């Protein structure tokens, strides 16, 4: 199942917002070549992560009610002097895969899933309600943790892999599995399942599926590192070939661990739900990833989104990023930009400017990122001081200032001061 659109009312920093998303099989106008990718850009605190949380809550509300999910400050808190906000509504229009929904939905091309949240007075805890998401048979389908129906996985920006002792049974007791798959979007430092928690069992149970999972992970790795499913019994870890050197997972850099961590966790969940006759890459569902560029070198940022899009063509991704290198790998139809309205609420729109293939500096100075200059603030202050000295009659300062204005930013000479980019 995919999210065709998400409507947000009074949630987190949003007053009212609507997104029409890309998803596999989408038809009509505005379809991107990367039909399974949605990328949200914007300032810190501008609502990017809130979009991911809204999608997860609206779809999984029946499963979240008794799963350990705590709705902490999800209803929008207004500024002083503004009217109080008591309720928040989230509505997802969902498009099921053919044959995915039971006979009760025969003939319907889409269904609406609506969640309602309410404040509890002055406190920070809110209350989640099942608004009009059909109680049956959707609730029954969501009670099956290992069904491919309503498959949603989410990864927050504080994601990490537990490389020490990890107890899967303890994690399950703390959270229902449906919520456990998205808990990192709502809780800091939620540990992802390490490979050794699920991949050895898969090898014992189904060698063909084990090889498929290994190939799925290896297929998204960048040049210079490879994974063949080798397990070091002494280290109790899986080993990667890093530049020709066998390297345990825990010895990899933070960038590799952050990326392999969530990819491995995702493939593990896919392996849990995939029917016996199907392949892991054939499972449809939604994957929500905050800060897709987390810890990634710029070279990897140039390739990460196209790689995961190709490796998981049946999954719908909703990603956030601050990276112009990531943004330049997708089309404008894939991109949503958050901003702030005059009343302080967040807005989200799609721009008509081209984004694919543009240079990082060009994108940073465009409406997608909104910078007036890419120069350091200290450099700008220095340039302003030179200007004032030149204006007061200092000839040397005038020459130095002119030199700054005419020196290309990438040259070895002292770079110029930033100028507002003409639109």
From TrEMBL:
Protein name: AAA family ATPase
A UniProt-annotated Pfam family: AAA_21
Signal peptide stretch: none
Residues of the ATPase AAA-type core domain: 37-326
Top-level taxonomic group: Bacteria
UniProt xrefs under SUPFAM superfamilies: P-loop containing nucleoside triphosphate hydrolases (SSF52540)
InterPro entries, alphabetized: ATPase_AAA_core, P-loop_NTPase
Taxonomic source organism: Rhodoplanes tepidamans (Rhodoplanes cryptolactis)
């Amino acid at each position: 199942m995919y999210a065709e659109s998400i409507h947000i009312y009074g949630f987190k920093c949003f007053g009212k917002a609507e997104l029409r998303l890309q998803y596999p099989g989408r038809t009509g106008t505005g379809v991107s070549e990367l039909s399974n990718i949605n990328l949200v850009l914007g300032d810190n605190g501008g609502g990017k992560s809130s979009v991911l949380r809204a999608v997860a809550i609206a779809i999984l509300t029946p499963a979240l009610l008794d799963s350990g999910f705590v709705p902490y400050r999800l209803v929008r808190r207004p500024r002083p002097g503004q009217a109080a906000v008591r309720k928040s509504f989230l509505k997802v229009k969902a498009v099921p895969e053919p044959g995915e929904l039971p006979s009760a939905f025969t003939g319907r091309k889409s269904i609406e899933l609506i969640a309602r949240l309410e404040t509890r007075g002055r406190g920070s805890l809110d209350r989640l309600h099942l608004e009009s998401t059909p109680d049956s048979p959707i609730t029954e389908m969501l009670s099956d943790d290992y069904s491919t129906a309503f498959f949603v996985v989410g990864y927050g920006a504080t994601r990490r892999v537990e490389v020490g002792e990890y107890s899967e049974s303890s994690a399950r007791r703390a959270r229902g599995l449906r919520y456990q798959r998205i808990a990192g979007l709502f809780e800091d430092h939620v540990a992802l399942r390490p490979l050794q928690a699920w991949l050895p069992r898969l090898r014992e149970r189904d060698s063909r599926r084990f090889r498929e999972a290994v190939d799925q992970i290896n297929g998204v790795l960048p040049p210079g590192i490879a994974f063949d499913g080798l397990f070091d019994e002494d280290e109790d870890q899986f080993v990667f070939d890093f530049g020709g050197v066998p390297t345990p997972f825990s010895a990899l850099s933070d960038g590799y661990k952050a990326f392999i961590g969530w990819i491995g966790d995702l493939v593990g969940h896919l392996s849990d739900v995939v029917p016996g006759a199907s392949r892991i890459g054939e499972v449809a569902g939604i994957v929500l990833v905050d800060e897709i560029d987390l810890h990634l070198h710029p070279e990897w940022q140039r390739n990460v989104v196209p790689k995961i899009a190709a490796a998981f063509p049946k999954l719908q991704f909703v990603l956030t990023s601050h990276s112009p290198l990531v943004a330049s790998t997708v089309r404008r139809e894939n991109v949503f930009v958050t901003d702030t309205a005059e009343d302080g609420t967040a807005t989200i729109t799609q721009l008509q400017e081209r984004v694919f293939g543009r240079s990082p500096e060009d994108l940073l100075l465009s409406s997608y990122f909104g910078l007036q200059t890419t120069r350091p603030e200290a450099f700008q202050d220095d340039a302003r001081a030179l200007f004032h000295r030149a204006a007061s009659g200092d000839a040397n300062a005038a020459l130095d200032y002119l030199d700054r204005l005419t020196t290309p930013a990438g040259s070895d000479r002292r770079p110029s001061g930033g100028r507002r980019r003409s639109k």
